[in-house]
Amino acid sequence: MILGNLCTRGCGFCSVPKGAPAKKEFLLDPEEPWQVAEMATRMKLKYVVITSVNRDDLPDGGSQHFAETVREVRSALPDARVEVLTPDFCGDHDAIGRVLDAGPHVFNHNMETVRRLYRRVRPQADYLQSLRVLKFAKQHRPNVLTKSGLMVGLGESEKEVQELLRDVLSADVDVATIGQYLQPTQRNLPVAEFVQPAQFDGYRDYGLLIGLKMVFSGPFVRSSYMADDVSEQAAWANA
After folding, report:
1. Residue 98 φ then ψ, to 5°
2. How far apart (Å, rounded) are the C-alpha atoms in residues 84 and 206?
3. Where are the beta strands (DSSP E) in 78-229?
4. Residue 89's closest CA among 38, 140, 144, 165?
5. Is the C-alpha dihedral spanning 239, 225, 95, 161 positive or negative?
6. Which pTM does this prediction carry?
7. For residue 87, which phi and psi values (nearest 5 degrees)?
8. Closest to 155 in 3D by CA, of 197, 191, 124, 127
9. Vertex 162, ends 197 and 148: CA angle to 5°?
10. Which of 70, 79, 181, 209 could form a cystine bridge with 102, CB 3.0-4.6 A?
11. pLDDT, tens digit, for every residue of 130-173?
């Protein structure tokens, strides 16, 4: 995770520390891109997922820093695959394009939850804006695999999850990941339901039925968990 350890947003599901831009608590380490690449090289990684906090305090949302990190990793590990899991950059297409132009193999932006729950779960985000981020990513770089993830167990209905899957399909998303929400701290939103494995199977089957290229759905699925296997299976299914 890059761009510091403080986030400018207060999503109800997330335990990443929050900061106040007015208090000038935020920092940006100019050496972070090559340091990330150096650590990835030391670890001999074959698949690198780069994600970040939201940095709404920066004019470009941190997209230049994000792009530099991708380029450094690709230069240091030319045979590795790179996945980016990005914020929405406030819907700024120039910022999204900047990250994509750095050459990631996979572009991931999580919807996180269904439309109705956005105000409670992602109060500083916008459902349609996130869909536009995903749509633009595929239009800008058609050969890049696009992904989006969501959590269940926050109070959504089956029909709402199905609607979300149809919406990400309409945004030209290739792969959807669906996992169980778990409350990270007492300050975060409570779990409304522990979804049964059969329901996860049903969501996967529905996503594949409507045309998504791959759906990974299960209680322990996370957007970046086993991302190398997800990418490989999605590419195989696409062949």
Report:
1. -60, -45
2. 26
3. 81-85, 106-108, 145-152, 175-180, 214-217
4. 140
5. positive
6. 0.94
7. -70, -175
8. 191
9. 85
10. 70
11. 999 999 999 999 999 999 999 999 999 999 999 999 999 999 99
